[in-house]
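Run log, item B.
One chain of 335 residues. Sequence copied directly from the ordering sheet:
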Amino acid sequence: MSRIKTCVSLYSLQDEYLNKRMTLREIVKFLKDNGVEGIEILPDQMIHGAPDPSEDTFAEWDSILEETGMTPVIADVFLNTNLYDNRILTKKECVDLLTREIRMTSRLGIKLIRLVSMTPAWVLEPLVPVLEKYEMTITLEIHAGMAFDIPQTQAFIEEMKRLNCPYIGLTIDTGIFCRKLPRVVANYNISIGSNPALYDYVNERFAEGTDMKQYFAAKGGWPDDFKALVKNEPDNFFAHTSDGYENLPYSVLDEYMPYIKHFHFKLFEMTEEGVEYSMDYRGLLEYLHEKEYDGYVSTEYEGNRFTIAGQPMREKEQVLAHQAYIRKCLKEIQG
């Protein structure tokens, strides 16, 4: 029997926060009032002074949690190796920075951290004593375009297995399970002058059961007929990022299930039919239920970045529709 719970990444409501339509307190209260179980936070984005917030900032956070009763589930942490103009951080500085992030996350009442994709595997071993001290789990995000076949990802997984530490695991971003190219991506790019035929080409690959990452690999790069469709800068930008929407089978997770601590349920567009346009979340939830997954699945809305000029930002509506759909599926699947 699975024990799947839902939460929302506050990244999903970043435009509301950035443009000061909602404060952090108002966002958390909005989600709680609409039945959301937990929240995922990016401290760099919404915790002033991270990774060393002031006591006043901590007190404000404590007050928000006390007022709303919301469960803080996970913190998204970035290893910012390019803090200086003239050099990257040393290995010691990287470990020290992540130690500060762990200490802060513990103080926020959170026991789980997501490390961004491509975080070097050599940070793990020196962090083990810190993780044990704070009983904190760190996870590498397996992200579309940087999934299981990337050398850096494989290096992290190999080190995770070698250390065999219960405080090291994986977060899965479901952009690796796209069954179609997100429609909002195509519509936005076409609105700024991109070639519609480019998106027809990509969708044909999805209809064949593959994706552009696999297709490019099989062809040894961009095939000539694809190159011919790239006519301007919007085309060129999309062409270079088109391999970031992967179409993998759920079974790719089989061997990693013991290490998976969290999921980002990527949201590009909830349709009028009440489902996400590009991904089969019911199918994925059925798979996780069969695997007896015990953890959170977090709405991560990224359709906001593809809002066409002059159209309203619909972060709140999209997030709530996605949460409603996930809860409906879970009720039917779990009983």
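Observations after the first pass:
- The first strand starts at residue 3 and ends at 9.
- Strands lie at 3-9, 38-41, 71-77, 112-115, 137-142, 168-173, 260-267, 294-301.
Flagged for discussion on Thursday.
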